[in-house]
């Protein structure tokens, strides 16, 4: 036998042997593929970051790929619910348009020319630029803008350690007037026990459309089960209006008139909770005298809601007490007088005695966490650039007043600010009067952005430091105060897909180069280890890794502050119907009604709103969410639309004193004839956010205006002209 | 030459005067910063937590004390006295005068009657 013959025989023999083996195993000869063993299916609990609510979720991960995000029913706050945005968190992780590497611009700001750089190069550049600004203008020459996140404190600490007093945060664009009004009245901002209420009044808020969370579902259940009556005031017929028992297209800016008239009726007819008021409140006599002037007939003229309805609602509201509430709202950045309206709400809630009672307002309970201790930095010594102490003495110091700050920075007063660090925020897209924001940006010697996507602000930055998404991160444990407080845990469900870092590591990288390492000399694991020491269980970290959330069965608790010796965190120690602190600061100690600016002839008041599938300006580009609304439109009533020759879907131009946009019209009777409405989050500059480039940007239209007391942006004070193009 | 009794009297006056001066000097650091508002608040929080919270927690020795335990005036008065453990020791046993001023600044700014509007997040 030659070699070829031998090889043929050997091969044939081998094949024959294999075939024999296959037959012996009962496998048909044609099914000889080796069965693929699927990767194990993991269920990893973590916490959502698609909006402020921080619901608990369970990530289904297989083969290192996140397949699905499901709710975690162990969280009594989020219960068995994960909304559209929560589910779309997968698209944040796998977004092809994510920023995958540190980048530095090579062309002009906004030109879109970038180079990928190493982390060392990006961090070196950032530190050098910050140092240069500090040397020339002092540390106060830098501005540190941020939005909430579990790691935000590290960013803010860096700014303070650097020596800058100039932090500015998202509440000044959102909830500032509610926070301040309720803090000055009750000493704290309570939660609203919607689930157990029997009568709810809402001014705007639009909770059944703008923000779908479990307590939204409580509202739906309580109203659709006919347990609670919902009275809803809004210039638009929204989904909340559709579900409400009563809807009134209130004249914008007159909600305080409605509230003062309710106070007039409830006090005048002795329908308030006398015992509660005498035990826990101060300033009632002055309030009673003050509201005598605000009759239902007077309010009817202002609000365009008939006095008989105002009268009836006031009586029904007080009859339902204490399970009645005037809901505070969330995004309260409406009018220059918004704070007064929220104070009116707080006072109305107080006098019916719904404080700390089931179905009313409940002070937030907390769960204690430990803290990693280290000797911190010296507090910045320079005054804030927005001159908060002088202009807004009662506003929250750390939040700042964005629009006042911007005016001052543009003017270079009281001193120059030339460096801007931005974290998890898109000021170009999110703040009114976009041209001014861009003007401020262009004046900067340095703009550094920490983000996960190419936001409009990142588009104009000098350096982008990409953060890992929440599904890739280990974060500090967070305590969410509320009627049922919880401690939530966020752990990575997959390894970072790209060359990104969690914020703490980015901050540590910058701090090292600025000789500030001593303030960030710990790992995330060490930070968390200290936090969980205070939790009442053995092996708390293992518990949180397994369950994702801790809650105590002792909650909810009602009435913990309803003791004669309880001291409210106010100047007087009582619930202040008349606010001494407002009085001392030179503001109205009781809310005084000022009529809104009249809508100029031929113009419309622009009102804004949110939808539950978008988180402000940041999630519009995710396809699942964008599919709900692929572009925004301008709502306009058929009557003025007809007089302007505008039909539904026509292209129109909308112009204000700040700028103009072109957008499609939505002609609908669901809005007052004197108003127009548009959704936030569209009309982007950044071509990376191609799905969100459609429609128009409200930031280009909104004019600069702020609430007089809290400084919160007043986003419903803009009047626009509309024409067909 | 002065009589011995006159010398003893002089020494006595001098001693008393010195004691008064020392006593006044001991009080000065605690009251030098008016209302404790010019101290370092961030450091003050650290000093309070590191030095006071080990004892002054719920169910522990000393009872729970937080910034909300006193009004601004009460915190000022407490630090002006500078005493601890029912007057058996001074606060300077635990912190230097500068650190005490920082702690007072923190406690004063977060006292139960202080203006501290709540906000979202930290």
Short account of what is shown:
The complex is a heterodimer of chains A (725) and B (122). With 725 residues, chain A is of the alpha/beta class.
Detail the topology: elements first, then pairings.
The complex is a heterodimer of chains A (725) and B (122).
Chain A: H1 3-24, E1 41-47, E2 56-62, E3 65-71, H2 84-87, H3 89-93, E4 103-105, E5 114-116, H4 119-137, E6 142-146, H5 152-162, E7 167-169, H6 176-186, E8 191-192, E9 199-203, H7 214-224, E10 229-233, H8 239-243, E11 246-248, H9 255-268, H10 274-280, E12 281-282, H11 284-290, H12 296-303, H13 307-320, E13 324-326, H14 338-351, E14 361-362, H15 388-391, H16 402-411, E15 419-423, H17 427-430, H18 434-443, E16 446-451, H19 456-459, E17 463-466, E18 478-480, E19 486-488, H20 503-513, H21 524-532, H22 540-547, E20 549-551, E21 575-576, H23 580-584, E22 604-609, H24 623-626, E23 633-636, H25 638-643, E24 651-655, E25 660-667, E26 675-679, H26 698-701, E27 719-724
Chain B: H1 4-31, H2 41-51, H3 72-81, E1 83-84, E2 89-90, H4 97-109
Antiparallel strand pairs in B: 1-2
The most extensive interface, with participating residues per chain, is: A-B, 40 and 20 residues
Distance between the termini of chain A: 92 Å
CATH topology of the domain at 32-109 in chain B: Cytochrome Bc1 Complex, Chain D, domain 2
Strand order of the largest sheet of chain B: 1-2
Q: Into which percent range does the helicity of residues of chain B fall?
A: 40-55%
CATH architecture field of the domain at 32-109 in chain B: Orthogonal Bundle
Helix count of chain A, per DSSP?
26
Q: Classify the secondary structure makeup of chain A into a structural class.
A: alpha/beta
In CATH's first tier, which class of the domain at 32-109 in chain B applies? Mainly Alpha
User: Would you list the SSEs of chain B in sequence order as H and E?
Assistant: HHHEEH
Average pLDDT of chain B, rounded to a whole number, is: 75
Q: Briefly, what CATH class of the largest domain in chain A?
A: Alpha Beta
Mean pLDDT over the residues of chain A: 93
Radius of gyration of chain A: 29 Å
Low-confidence stretches of chain A: 1-29
List unreliable stretches of 5+ residues of chain B: 1-36
Oligomer description? heterodimer
Outline of chain A: globular
Strand count, sense and barrel status of the largest sheet of chain B are:
2 strands, antiparallel
Q: What is Rg of chain B? A: 20 Å
Secondary structure tally: strands of chain B: 2
